[in-house]
Write a structure and sequence with these properties.
This protein has 489 residues and is mainly α. It has 21 helices and 2 strands. It has a two-stranded antiparallel sheet.
């Protein structure tokens, strides 16, 4: 008689871990509660209830499974990461559900958008929302950004996700072991310190440039997280300030740089580490080239009659789209057609690996380009021995294959999601824009979703939720769970 297949995971140990993490996350409702009390906006009960529910669920999971202490495998890591990100989206939606603001679908959509730093919104009338609700939106952007940095720098390399092995010890000085170790905990603490320091510097700069303290903190949260949530419907157009926009560009680019490099600069006190990293150099060159192209296009097509204005808005929008932040000083979908197309292409490139930015990442685009050029060289010189290099370092065939696999899955996922969006009733441009906005964690889309997702069908919103999770968790982390063989011992 055959033995039935055994469930290959320590389910109760995972539940215990989730319980601890939820108890930890429940604390994040307290700042919003404090904001509600300070501004007397009547939302304190909502955040107290959200805190109590999250704490109670976490405490129950932890107590029931207290003795289940098993070391989790790399295979279980995929499940833990995917489920917890989805769980956070659900818990972060509680204030929207308990309050008289959004239905369940819209609340979860808004929350997942915040945690995945997509910056896509279903809310119209941000300027009229209570201060505590606005603060909650900005905070989940910030927490999601830091959560992904720790994930991308310390955990995904160990899972071998889409070529992220490149950021093991050889490049970043991080995570030398093949399992979760105290070394990773030490790294995570250092990353948090860097993240908090950059956020504080950004908030101070915004405040000195003319923002209120509330707006400065909220937009610093979203800027470093490259999240794109704003406290105003007009986003950065609300201030119409070149100085504030320049500050945002600097810190959006900082959020788009690999935090492992920030870590090295901080640890070694060596700012030249930025210049020595080939991905950072490529990222900044892409920004400069694209800003010049978009700025000139805006001027030559007559969108802005003044060249300085054209360059100002072009540089801001390129920084926002390249890092997938999604802030705006104008609606780029309304610009001449080749400009939105160029910006959408930039959103697929994204920022550096190990940053808070979305997209496929500059690192992978570099390796794809180098691999393609290597194949062309081999056609011209069949006997030549060639090696793909990143800087001076050769890249293994295993990593190249992983990058190509990631690229194919990313594009196929985008195509299938676009078909799904069209099946819900969206036209081609709107469906493509919706997928670009969610899968790349970009924020603004095209067509019907150029401003927000408020008017689209609930089924499209659930597709968008799935797309945001897939894009934020580097595709493989979610899609591997769909394989039947993953669930068999």
């Amino acid at each position: 008689m055959s033995t039935p297949p055994r469930f290959p995971f320590h389910g109760r140990a995972i539940a215990r871990l989730f319980g601890f993490l939820l108890m930890l996350y429940s604390i994040s409702f307290l700042p919003s509660l404090a904001v509600s009390l300070v501004y007397a906006d009547g939302q304190a009960g909502i955040f107290a209830m959200s805190f109590a529910v999250t704490l109670a669920v976490g405490l129950l999971l932890w107590i029931v499974n207290y003795r289940q202490r098993h070391e989790l495998s790399a295979r279980e890591g995929f499940l833990v990461v995917a489920l917890f990100w989805a769980l956070l989206g659900g818990m972060g939606a509680l204030p929207f559900i308990f309050g008289p603001h959004l239905d369940v679908t819209d609340a979860i959509f808004e929350s997942v958008s915040g945690f995945t730093t997509a910056g896509v919104t279903v809310i119209v009338g941000l300027d009229q929302l209570p201060a505590s609700i606005l603060y909650h939106r900005q905070q989940i952007n910030w927490l999601g950004g830091m959560g992904f940095v720790v994930l991308a720098v310390a955990i995904l390399p160990l899972l071998g996700v889409g070529g992220m092995q490149l950021y093991r010890a050889e490049i970043s000085g991080v995570a030398k072991e093949e399992k979760l170790t105290p070394r990773i905990a030490e790294t995570a603490r250092a990353l948090w310190l860097i993240y908090v320091a950059l956020t504080a510097a950004c908030a101070l700069a915004f405040w000195l440039a003319g923002m209120s303290a509330f707006d400065a903190v909220g937009h610093a949260y979203a800027t470093l997280a490259t999240g794109g949530f704003s406290t105003h419907d007009a986003s950065f157009g609300h201030w119409d300030s070149p100085l504030i926009e320049a500050i945002a560009i600097v810190f959006m680019l900082a959020g788009g740089i690999n935090f492992a490099i920030h870590f090295l600069v901080w640890r070694r006190r060596d700012a030249l580490a930025y210049a020595r990293d080939p991905e950072v150099r490529a990222f900044l060159l892409i920004f400069l080239g694209a800003a010049l192209f978009i700025g000139l296009s805006l001027y030559l097509t007559g969108v802005y009659a003044d060249a300085t204005q054209a360059m100002r808005h072009g540089a801001f929008q390129v920084a926002s789209i390249l890092t997938n932040t999604g802030f705006g000083t104008a609606t780029f979908a309304e610009w001449p057609l080749h400009i939105p197309l160029a910006l959408v292409a930039l959103s697929y490139v994204g920022g550096c690996a190990g940053s808070t930015a979305g997209g496929m990442k500059v690192l992978r685009i570099m390796l794809l380009a180098k691999s393609g050029l290597t194949q062309l060289f081999k056609l011209a010189h069949p006997r030549a021995v060639t090696v793909v290099k990143l800087g001076r370092r050769p890249v293994s065939d295993e990593i190249i294959q992983a990058v190509w696999g990631f690229y194919v899955l990313y594009l196929v996922t985008a195509l299938l999601l676009t078909l799904g969006m069209m099946a819900t009733g969206l036209d081609l441009v709107s469906a493509f824009g919706a997928v670009t906005a969610t899968l790349n964690t970009l924020g603004p889309g095209l067509g019907e979703v150029a401003g927000n997702f408020a008017s689209i069908d609930p089924a499209a919103k659930w597709l968008g939720i799935f797309a945001m999770l897939v894009g934020r968790l580097e595709v493989f982390t979610i899609l591997v769970l769909l394989l039947p063989t993953y669930w068999r011992d």
